[in-house]
Design brief:
The complex is a heterodimer. Chain A is mostly helical. Chain A has helices spanning 3-6, 12-31, 40-60, 68-93. Chain A has one domain. Helix content of chain B is 82%, strand content 0%. Classes of the chains: A mainly alpha, B mainly alpha. At the A-B interface, helix 2, helix 3 and helix 4 of A face helix 1, helix 3 and helix 7 of B.
Chain lengths: 95, 200
């Protein structure tokens, strides 16, 4: 493994920028509940939550600077979990 | 006589990630239960969810996001050999965790005050859908709060070890893994918040 990768130091400013983005998205997700979007509102809420978790994973959890093995592993596990959820609800919807 | 301790930071990190995957599956299972029951009891879930305070939920979300940023910054500060800032950032994280639990305490206390808690007579009178909603609400946010408590203990240990110089930029992996755990707690809350408080 590349020693350089492990000791990569992320500047404080990047964390603060990501934090600002996360808080903005939280406020947006609360704001859109005031608008009646019908069935779309669930979709918007999940989309915003997914974007927020992507930011947390990539920057806070350091994945952007991790080795390829970890990147592939984490991405595939998240896709697997998302698929399990999606297929379960698909099944329920068309039963 | 000095003993050469074997250390493998990459393996430690991989191990932490494997643990995170099991946590993910645990909560994903509960999200499925929630989704299915919500689908079967849409009206009761809608009415019960509107009883939760969006303000309390939003404040707690922002508190957790800030705490995630502070512990992530602590990892950078430790590597930059800035011990004082590392400790300040870790203590801020602990303070945020405490604030989260305080907020949660008042939220739950309010519900208990209205006679709403698992197995209460008032809840049973409200009907099947409400019982399910509040059962899941207390169980899922309760399990999440339990994770906050565990994280609080972990961060305290890290803070103590940074302070007595047994955790430095030469061996930052305990701080990194504690950070990963804390971000997981944040991740779960990112999904719990819209699920219980926002989705109409």
């Amino acid at each position: 493994m590349d020693k350089q990768d492990n000791n990569h130091i992320i500047p404080y400013k990047l964390y603060l920028t990501v934090l600002a983005g996360l808080i903005t998205m939280t406020i947006v997700s609360v704001g859109v509940t005031k608008i009646d979007l019908g069935n779309l509102s669930v979709f918007v809420a999940i989309l915003l939550a997914s974007s927020k978790s992507a930011l947390v994973l990539v920057f806070f959890m350091h994945l952007k600077f991790d080795n390829t093995l970890l990147k592939i592993l984490v991405t595939s596990v998240f896709i697997l979990v998302a698929l399990v959820l999606f297929i379960t609800f698909l099944d329920y919807n068309y039963r | 006589m000095s003993i050469q301790l074997h250390r493998d930071d990459d393996a430690s990190k991989l191990g932490m990630w494997l643990f995170i995957f099991t946590e993910l599956l645990l909560f994903a299972g509960m999200f499925i239960v929630y989704g299915v029951y919500r689908y079967l009891n849409p009206v009761a879930f809608h009415l019960a969810a509107s009883e939760l305070s969006i303000t309390a939920g939003t404040i707690n979300t922002i508190i957790l996001l800030i705490s995630s940023a502070t512990i992530a910054m602590a990892s950078s500060a430790l590597r930059l050999k800035n011990k004082q800032l590392t400790i300040i950032l870790l203590l801020s994280t602990l303070f945020m965790a405490f604030m989260f639990m305080t907020n949660k305490y008042f939220e739950w206390k309010g519900k208990f005050g209205h006679g709403i808690f698992p197995g209460s007579d008032d809840l049973l009178r409200l009907g099947h859908g409400d019982t399910l909603f509040y059962g899941l609400y207390f169980f899922m946010t309760g399990l999440h709060a339990l994770h906050i408590v565990v994280g609080f203990i972990l961060i305290s240990v890290v803070c103590y070890r940074v302070n007595n110089n047994t955790l430095t930029n030469n061996n930052p992996v305990l701080l990194d893994n504690t950070g990963l755990y804390w971000h997981l707690v944040d991740l779960i809350w990112i999904f719990l918040f819209p699920l219980f408080y926002l989705i109409p």
